[in-house]
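Issue: copy button drops trailing tokens. Both records pasted manually instead:
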Amino acid sequence: MWGICSRTMVKVGMAKPCGIMKPCHLVKPVSATRVSGRYLTHQKGLPTLPVPPLQQTCERYISALEPIVEVDELKHTKELLDDFQKAGGVGERLQRGLEKRAGITNNWLSEWWVQVAYLTYRLPVVVHSSPGLVLPRMNFRDKQGQIRFAAKLISGVLDFKAMIDNETLPVEYLGGKPLCMNQYYEVLSSCRIPGPKKDSVVNHAKSPRPPKHITVVHNFQFFVLDVYNSDGTPLTSDQLCVQLERICSSSLQNNMEPVGILTTLHRDSWGKAYLNLIKDTTNKQSVSAIQRSIFTLCLDGAMPRVSDETRRSTAAVQMLHGGGSQWNSGNRWFDKTLQFIVGEDGTCGANYEHAPAEGPPIVALIDHVVEYTRKPETSRSPMVPLPMPQKLHFNITPEIKKNIEEAKQEMNILADDLDMRVTVFGHFGKDVPKSHKMSPDAFIQIALQLAYYRMYQHSCATYESASLRMYRLGRTDTIRSASSASAAFIKAFDDPNKQNTEKVDLMVKAVTAHRSYTNMAISGQAIDRHLLGLKLQAVEEKLSVPEIFSDPAYAKALHYKLSTSQVPSKADCVMCFGPVVSNGYGVCYNPMNNHINFAVSSFNNCKETNAAQLAQAVEGALLDMRTLLDQTPRAKL
């Protein structure tokens, strides 16, 4: 794939994950006042995404290739680049076209990006594109506790939605600069719509009559639950409890056809099945109600019983794909931008469709919801009769039944193939790198490089998402964590002939290089989106795509065997996603003060990769790097 997330097409060079901004500790919300049109005023005040200089990108591209390609490959690429950027050549023409596009659009990249990274990406969204998010296990273990927590969760989301609707959401800042807030306005009341060749996204929050309902799924059955009273006030948690109990009571049997599992299909297959599904008027109305809803709440049935040691990993699987057709994969509508998932055993979290937004707005919403669920209920519920939640009906033809069976089979193959390991690195957190005046994110990324090198004896193309939200409608660019500096450090680290002082010096240089690339990326000066833009500009101008994009080195640069993202949050949670290439890993982490939550994924059918082994190697690398620092006094600067 991808992109952070996305898990989006490697061939265009994205990354998966999730668009987290660095340094995360500099992102500060500032309280907002209620001002009409404040959102639009804020957005218009943001700068537009720059187009980096062509020569700068070409030079930085060569530097990025150095640790991951052979010398003869690099020599060939340099020759191609010299030809590409020569005076009066195709590179200059494409650069001028991009600069012209930048002058007449809000963001020269954003529309291209959502199309190429997501909507024309045809692998299933489940595992390959949509991340899951695992919250700490909540303090309930039965159906009543599940319902009570889910009711408070709904109230918490509606509380956050009120800030979006009233445009009182605190503006976030990075290094004193305001960030684009657009993604917050895209995650509620929106949904992906499958197409036979390309998907689309609809956002009903901006319609003349915005939706007032959510979708609740229980035992594979879908319900419309109105969450506002006739006077416009949100239902209280007590009222929501009553309604959720009604839904659960009227959907006790679980022998219904799991229509939701159709959303796990390959996008071309789902696009065809979708057109067939909505030929029926009842089906079309039911699907429309799901698509229009503010969000989806999945009340899950039991998952397999596991040990405490593997509970977090099983929870991650539940959030990412539901566990397969025999568990909860059919208790979803994966096209929905935001799905909250609550199990009976205290397991809870979310899954989100990646096209409208990156991780930070989702995490900010979830942090707000978790905080809200911990508050005591204040408002008393009025004793007014509530309308019965409306069950959504589907007419299942033999052809739709066949599609459902195909989806079950494909989903089970994918579920069996994904290996997901969630671990808590409990020895230290952000505190240790900070005490050595190092960026925690850079420290963790260099540890990942060391862990991978210890397993494979070489560096690989590594994707880390960087936020471009300092710019209007900014999404992500790539931090390339494998650098010449990181390669020098990891090769020296286990060399007994190297002195500790030299190893520390190389570590500092590697961490500094990563920090430098991060700053470059969030400033719109990284290479990956610029190269993609030049390629797409050639397509736009109906020119033959330049040879640098068919160069084997370019394919190698986009084959991200390590697709990573830092997703910091206040809640003690971790995001998870699948690898973006068949022989790669997905690695997401949330550094807390005294520990680090990791989610590492790989595919079982690849004999080269092993998620548990990489997770263990990362733990060893982090411990060894700290030991080296502790044992090697550094000269006072």
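Record 2 (pasted manually too):
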Amino acid sequence: MPELRAQSADDAYDGVKEIEPVYKMVQLGSLLVVCLMNTLSTSPAFSEDEDELSISPGDRLSSCPFGCICTSEATVDCSGVDLSSFPSNVSGDTQHLALQNNRLEDIPSEDLSRLTKLKTLSLHNNRLLSRGLPDKAFKFLQELEYLYLANNKLTVTPRSLPDTLRIADFAGNHLKEIFALTFGQKPKLRSVYLHNNNLTNAGLPKAMFSGSDMVNILILSNNNLTHVPENLPPLLIQLHLQNNRISKIPKGAFNNLEQLRELYLQCNSLSNAGMNSQTFSKMKGMQYLDLSSNNLRKVPEGLPPNIVVLQLGKNHITSISKHSINRIRNLEYLLLQNNRITASRIHKDAFGKLRKLHTLHIFNNPLSKVPASLPRRISSLMLLHNGIEQIGINDFVSTYYLTELNLSYNKLHSVSIHRLAFRKLRQLERLDLSGNNLTQLPTGLPPSLQALRIQYNQINQLSAEPLLNMKALKELYLHHNKLTIGKIAPGTWREVPNLKLLDLGYNDLSYVPPDLPESLEYIYLQNNRIATITSDSFISVPNIKVIILRSNRLTSVGVRMGSFRGLKYVQVLDLTGNPEYISIFLNSTTRSPPRAGNNSTARAQRATNQQSREI
């Protein structure tokens, strides 16, 4: 699964990023099945009498519609050729007809009905109206399996489609009504796409999927449904109902969906009153459940035990009781961001039985302290954008497996972080303390740390003590603080011998800090007060690749001859935004030595922009 990382209070894990589920989501767009046959020659074959054409299989392709591609009699591709009318000379033996991305408004019944061997009909991205799509013609297409009509102007579906249908895509139309035999009595139907329409519950027939028990993907997102449809296909695996106006789940609506693995109900109007303790109880196969962006005030009762990912962000949840989540024994990802949870209302045993839970997001809540009891197996804990004021000696005493801890944008001061607070976190790799009120680095940081973010604080001094034994540290972000050269103690950088990235931008440095670690490859010094670069400024960093010195006080006089000599690996040197244009040619191992000056290169811009993104 992709790594889950928060960005800010507004966009952090919004939907993730919001979260990509463990299970690959179906592409919510028009699908195009193209079955290419072996290419047959379209050149006319001549007999010995050059005035008379001989008849060969390739000759039949001469009836291919103008502007189209006919790789065989079975496949006709007329996609994106600006057709405004249905091509009249399509072979009656055509099996796969692609007409998407044109300007078709109607299809003559007689032209479509004679294509009795059609298996794939692609008509998405046209201008088809319901009155221009002949109902009667489909009864002759008794081999049709794949029908793509997405992104047209249909207001109703055809009354009846062939019972051979496997995939039906009507997404992105203006549908208000579906008929009983549109999708009903289709024993081979597997996937139905109806998202981005104007469907209401009144427009869905009760027997909508009667006789179509094999449907396993149903997409009804972005419509106007007010409650979950009833009589859903029993073999559904994915059900998308997000972005509707659903406020109620009728009793028994999910009772026959024991094989459903993914249920998307986010961005609706669901409250706890709109469901009961039995709503989800029969869904034994459920692994991914998204109830984010609703009106829940507590965790729903009776959630099935096999859920792996549970999204409850952006609700009004105020508490986590002892039993509300504990019965979900397979839970691995619990997302509770953007709620109203306080530390005092998280029961001390709320996570006690969740032995598989490794990712917990409780950011952007009104927590004033770290919750008293955290899951023992937690590896990623997001507590950013709360009101946490202190870190006590025992707050993380039982979270031995933490590898990522985000405490950014809280109300922490240096004196409120206990010097032994992180002593048990021997596997911690990433720690984010940015956006607090720290004046110095915390002591007792775990030696396992690889990335430390402490930007946007009030750091005004650096000493070797907090960095003792930090041999694993590779990235240190200290931009937007109050550091001066005089407050960086000698020997500080010796404690981080493997540091590769150091960000000291937006401080108050008057020159490049001396004795930088030899391992350094990226240094960011933008927006300081640096006026001089000497021949010794970068002598300790022979492996440096990126040097960002833009928006300082550098002039041609202040950059000494040979200041960058010997830096054979430099790829980016950004000196833009200084008082004078500074042109420097670098010795480099690259084929074309980079030139650094006030006109920043695209590469410098990309490198700096990428680095500047906050976590």
